[in-house]
Amino acid sequence: MKILNLVTLLLVIVGGLNWGLVGAFDFDLVAALFGDGSALSRIVYVLVGLSALWQIMPFLAALKTDEARAEAGVRAPVRS
């Protein structure tokens, strides 16, 4: 399961960077690499979207853990 989380996290990062490029420079890196509207580009977009859905689970688990700590009066450790 850890490898799946790492792969999906990487794809979410790739998707985020691609959207950053689209927003800042109107440049779609995925389309530039694989062709605008090509089957491969569409596969990449679908994989990024599915990865985002998958990453909701660890996000919700982290929120639940933080809520449980807050209810128990436990403070999160300070990182330096």
UniProtKB/TrEMBL annotation:
Q: From the record, give the transmembrane residue ranges.
A: 43-63
* Keywords attached to this entry: Membrane, Transmembrane, Transmembrane helix
The answer, when asked if Membrane is one of the entry's keywords, is yes
Tell me the InterPro entries matching this sequence: DUF378
Q: Which Pfam families match?
A: DUF378 (PF04070)
PANTHER family from the UniProt entry? MEMBRANE PROTEIN, MEMBRANE PROTEIN-RELATED
What name goes with this protein? DUF378 domain-containing protein
Cite the source lineage. Bacteria, Pseudomonadati, Pseudomonadota, Alphaproteobacteria, Caulobacterales
